[in-house]
Design a protein that fits this description.
Layout (H helix, E strand, L loop, with lengths): L1 E4 L14 H13 L5 E4 L12 H18 L4 E4 L3 H9 L4 E4 L8 H8 L3 E4 L17 H18 L7 E4 L8 H9 L1 H5 L6 E3 L4 H7 L7 H13 L4 E3 L3 H14 L3
Parallel strand pairs: 1-2, 2-3, 3-4, 4-5, 5-6, 7-8
Helix pairs in contact: 1-2, 2-3, 3-4, 9-10
The structure holds ligand YH5.
Length: 258
């Protein structure tokens, strides 16, 4: 899954793809590089970021979805928590919803069920503004998996079929380095739930902490984590650097013994 941010304050590529034509070209390049899906987000979820109004998010995301759909047939996911954006994006051609609030905003669950597309449910402790203020867990893996399984049950009750549910531990969303490490090592346990697992770790702070590298120097760290996540059974890896990640995953899959 290639990341396409259309925000002005995203952490690692903020403002880079704000120009509509550039954003479209970046999407086409990621598709050509081997992305299976492109995740389009119009609201930054970086720590301390501000909520974006519905109309502003629509203005950022919908024209881009329309232009990508017109240009190539790569599947598109919309990274949003707002039911209005989910609905408009899917009607414009997006075929998946990626929600860091796991469909807990008012109306989101019902709209997602009506739209009939796959949904990714992510775990977050707190909200984007306060999530990195001293996150605490008694048992991080147990709590995150209980949360995700409970949200998956809510989705099924609301009419979302099991095969349309993807789960994500939410690396960096209300977690310390140790919490992120514990969750990463537990990827096989999340995979064992039977739901496809999405891992989003590309360029994140935990990789900076482990490699002592600035955000624009985390490619090797991101590739290493992507290979390990795939080997642990993750179904979808959300990344900035599609071309490099596709190579890394190709080599890992060709050279690993089964
Ligand atoms: C995710 O994990 N993450 S947005 C900070 C960075 C680099 C990247 C400090 N949306 C996820 O990508 N959706 C985001 O450098 C997501 N899973 C799902 N499902 C944050 C992000 C980032 C933040």
């Amino acid at each position: 899954m290639g990341i396409l941010n259309v925000t002005v304050d995203s952490f690692s590529d903020g403002g880079l793809w704000m120009d509509a034509d550039q954003a479209l070209r970046h999407a086409v390049n990621m598709a050509a590089a081997g992305a299976d899906i492109i995740d389009i987000g119009g609201e930054s979820t970086r720590p301390g970021s501000l909520a974006v109004e519905v109309q502003q998010e629509l203005d950022r995301v919908i024209p881009l979805i329309e232009s990508i759909v017109a240009e190539c047939d790569i599947p598109l996911s919309v990274d949003t928590s707002k039911p209005e954006v989910m609905e408009t994006a899917v009607r414009a051609g997006a075929c998946m919803i990626n929600d860091v609030f796991a469909l807990r905003c008012e109306g989101a669950l019902e709209i997602a069920a009506t739209l009939g597309v796959p949904v990714c449910l992510m775990h977050i402790q707190g909200g984007p503004r306060d999530m990195q203020c001293d996150p605490e867990y008694a048992d991080v893996v147990g709590e995150v998996s209980d949360f995700l399984l409970a949200r998956a049950d809510c989705c099924e009750l609301a009419g979302i079929p099991k095969q349309n549910i993807i789960i994500d531990p939410g690396f960096g969303f209300g977690k310390t380095l140790q919490h992120n490490i514990d969750l990463f090592k537990a990827i096989p346990a999340f995979v064992a739930t039977g739901y496809p697992v999405l891992v989003g770790i590309s360029r994140k702070t935990m990789l900076g902490q482990l490699s002592d590298k600035a955000v624009d120097q985390r490619l090797a760290a991101s590739l290493s984590a992507a290979v390990l996540a795939a080997q642990a059974g993750a179904a979808i890896i959300r990344v900035h650097d599609v071309d490099e990640t596709v190579d890394a995953l190709k080599i890992a899959s060709a050279l690993q013994s089964s």
